[in-house]
Write a structure and sequence with these properties.
The structure is a single chain. This protein is mostly beta strands. The chain folds into 3 domains: 43-146, Beta Barrel (Lipocalin); 157-279, Lipocalin; 283-382, no CATH class. Helix content is 12%, strand content 39%. The protein contains 7 helices and 24 strands. The strands form 3 sheets. An 8-stranded antiparallel barrel has the order 1-2-3-4-5-6-7-8. Strands 13-12-11-10-9-16-15-14 form an 8-stranded antiparallel sheet. Strands 17, 18, 19, 20, 21, 22, 23 and 24 form an 8-stranded mixed sheet that branches. Strand 1 and strand 2 (65-71) form a beta hairpin. It is globular. It starts with a helix and ends with a strand. It comes from Thioalkalicoccus limnaeus. Residues 294-358 form the DUF4377 domain. InterPro entries: Cu-R_lipoprotein_NlpE (IPR007298), DUF306_Meta_HslJ (IPR005184), DUF4377 (IPR025485), HslJ-like_sf (IPR038670), Hsp_HslJ-like (IPR053147). Residues 161-273 form the DUF306 domain.
Length: 385
């Protein structure tokens, strides 16, 4: 009889089963109650999208629409636009924007004309009505976000003019037709340099020089214009004449800031010159060292050549005194394995160049070795082969 309690306990435990009633089934472990899955790859979540965006949007009857759009984290926006027509006044609006389903595009409210933008890394792309996909490659539909690198550079108009070399990329007349005369050669465009209140333009046949400043109305004015007197092919000389005529009067300036800024020059006749800016070596690397280099008429074969033909310039450094006379003995000829910015060698012509040499510290996006930039061609001589 002493084993009966143990037997009864075993029966009791063996016969116990979990309650499967409806009330018991309503109790769920917390981990089984899941929230909707959030896509962490949408522009709204993955990108630092709040801030100022700026660019030049397309215009059917003008050279473009300068647009500045600020997006706030709380869904507010401010947009400022100005048509590139001389004397045009900017207009502004404020309102709210909404994220579209998928959180990759935004739509401005009625105060922003319902414009729709796709949000990308550091940029907005305008999506036209009826367009299903953003045109990422269209410069005239893109607004670039202001970045820390941009804010580290000088942003005043005068400083921006000096700190960049300006390449002419487009020109239109009052009817918004391209001025083809200014682009006679697809591989050779006008480049503007503005240093110490002096303007120097290269790219056609002859270099154009003059003093520049701003008049009482804030217009860019070039005075004392002069040029070299070389004879070239007719299209190049016609380009020179056309540009000189456009710059004979004060020009209204519109600056579109950014890492790739644009400068627009507007004439009283309704013409528009559009230039893109690239930071000068001085603005990037600081003050240079001036050197003189003689370039031989003929190039030589070179293992470290940067050119496709496998050849390099032959160069040697020479020295001048304060009176401009050569002094000392020139260095030995050697193959030149770098690039001289602004210099294009013509076989059979020996040149003496005045160069600006930059020795930047190593770092990201900085080329190895010294950087040479052409300042002046001191001598030229045709050398018979």
């Amino acid at each position: 009889m002493r084993y009966l309690p143990l037997a009864l306990l075993a029966v009791a435990l063996g016969g116990w089963q979990p309650d499967k009633s409806a009330d018991a089934m309503e109790i769920q472990p917390p981990e089984l109650a899941t929230d909707p899955v959030v896509d962490m790859h949408t522009s709204r979540i993955a990108l630092d999208w709040a801030g100022l965006y700026e660019g030049l949007l397309g215009c059917s009857d003008c050279a473009g629409i300068h647009t500045q759009l600020t997006l706030e984290p709380d869904g507010r926006f401010e947009i400022v636009t100005r048509r590139l027509v001389r004397g045009a006044e900017p207009s502004s609006a404020q309102g709210k924007f909404e994220w579209e389903p998928g959180d990759n595009s935004i739509v401005l409210d009625a105060d922003g004309d319902g414009q729709r933008f796709t949000v990308g890394e550091g940029r907005l792309v305008l999506v036209d009505a009826g367009q299903t996909q953003p045109a990422w490659g269209r410069a005239d539909a893109t607004l670039a976000q202001s970045s820390p690198a941009q804010r580290d550079t000088r942003q005043d108009l005068g400083d921006m003019l000096v700190d960049h070399r300006w390449l002419l990329v487009d020109a239109t007349d009052a009817a918004n037709r391209r001025i083809d005369t200014l682009f006679p050669n697809a591989e050779r465009s006008f480049v503007f340099h503005l240093v110490d209140s002096r303007l120097h333009v290269q790219g056609g046949c002859n270099g154009l020089r003059g003093a520049y400043g701003f008049d009482a109305d804030g217009m860019l004015e070039v005075t004392g214009r002069a040029s070299t007197m070389m004879a070239c092919e007719a299209p190049l000389m016609e380009a020179d004449a056309a540009l000189s005529a456009l710059m004979a009067e004060p020009l209204e300036t519109v600056l579109i800031r950014g890492l790739e800024p644009r400068l627009v020059l507007l004439t009283t006749a309704g013409d528009a010159l559009v230039l893109t800016g690239e930071l000068t070596p001085e603005a990037r690397f600081g003050a240079p060292t001036r050197v003189f280099m003689e370039v031989a008429a003929q190039t030589v074969e070179c293992e470290a050549a940067l050119l496709e033909d496998g050849r390099c310039l032959q160069v040697r450094e020479i020295r001048f005194d304060e009176q401009g006379l050569r002094v000392g003995t020139p260095d030995e000829w050697q193959a030149f394995t770098s690039i001289i910015e602004g210099y294009q060698h013509q076989p059979g012509i020996r040149n003496v160049l005045r160069l600006e040499r930059f020795d930047p510290p190593a770092g990201p996006n900085v080329p190895e070795g010294p950087i040479y930039v052409l300042d002046l061609v001191v001598e030229s001589e045709v050398v018979p082969q």
